[in-house]
Design brief:
The protein is an all-alpha fold. It has a single domain, classed as Leucine-rich Repeat Variant (Alpha Horseshoe), CATH 1.25.10. Helix content is 63%, strand content 0%. The protein has 10 helices and no strands. Helix 6 runs antiparallel to helix 7 and helix 8 runs parallel beside helix 10. It is globular.
Amino acid sequence: MPAHFLRAPHPGPFYPLVGGLYGGGDEKAQKLAHQDPAMRFWGAVGLVALGAKASPAAAALRKALKDPAPNPRVAAAEALSFCGGLDDALPVLVEALRHESAFIRLRAMNALERLGPKAKPAAQAMRAAAMTGGHAAEYVTRMAEYVPARLDR
């Protein structure tokens, strides 16, 4: 986004999206039900940033694990994993490691890496996430080696 938009003195149409990211957990949880998958994704990412403080949104996050769009689903799984919902979140992250898109696999891999040792049950699935065909796929393959090895340290 051009810098002059970021300093605009009068709110424009992009402000509701950006402004909503700064609200509390309740506001972010409400975004999980938005019709736009991008809004659902950013709502979930906001809850990831809250960590365990997002616990009041656990029910909404569990519902978001069934989101038809993969980006909000993976972000919701990561957020839920920090709120005591690891048992529900881990299968969603493992499933995302098999997604056809290298970017979804990478998002899941990054979420699992941030979980640290709690992600060890997914180590085999991470190793199996390796791909071929393009720069993004090669990066997923490197991560498929790196992240499980890092969990063993």
